[in-house]
Amino acid sequence: MHDEPKFFPQRGTSFYADGRSVRPQVENTVARNQLREDTYFYTGLENGKEGSTMPFPVTMQVLERGQERYNVYCTPCHSRVGNGEGMIVQRGYAHAGDFHTARLETAPLGHFFHVISNGYGAMPDYSAQIAPVDRWAIVAYIKALQLSQKATQADVAPGSHVEPLASIAEKDGLPASFAKPWTLPPTATYGTPNDQSFVLPTPGSATSGAPAPAVTRPSTAHSPAAAGQTVPKQ
After folding, report:
1. CA distance linking residue 132 with residue 138, whole number of Å
2. What is the C-alpha to C-alpha distance for residues 230 and 138, in angstroms, rounded to an integer?
3. Cα dist. 98→50, 54, 82, 142 in Å?
4. pLDDT digits (tens, 9 = 90+) for 66-87
5. Shortest CA distance to 115 belongs to which of 106, 105, 125?
6. Where are the beta strands (DSSP E) in the chain?
7. Model pTM?
8. What residue ranges define each of the domains in the chain, with the CATH number in brackets?
């Protein structure tokens, strides 16, 4: 046993006719947890294009699960209302996607699943953190979130009442600014070479690859006003 005959990975051998110690896999062998017969469920793509349907029925339980996972993984960037002004964005991270823009309101369901799975722009992928079934639950909740921000009385069940976010905030004792669009504080650091906001270009647009437009921000410690100097009028 001191000199036990054995095969070493990727090393040749004269035992087999093809000279390889590593044997080819048996045809049609599938590794554990890799039998993905429902391609759409795992990719969000149909014939290479983003699909527009859910792979399973959406129930209240699915929406509640999607909300819970969304609040864990998505709110730091996209915020609870999905306007792209989450807490780390307010502190200088790249502006996240606003789900209430025309582009994302009309985006197919498969688009959101594909982005969660593979990332987009400054957003990393979350395939390791979020299981496929939970990614679809988040997609369903995002669509419900989009509807909630523009819901009318006709969109809810009889007996229910649509109430503006500002009214809800007032009842909860929150400031009036809570329901208004959020803006970055003047002390936020963008982290870009030119200290300007990083804006993702629209895929296929003429401005794709062009530098971000200049963003005017109030200066802080190094401004003449901060040093007590007179600022000339422009």
Report:
1. 10
2. 53
3. 19, 21, 6, 11
4. 999 999 999 999 988 888 888 8
5. 125
6. 45-46, 49-50
7. 0.63
8. 57-152 (1.10.760.10)
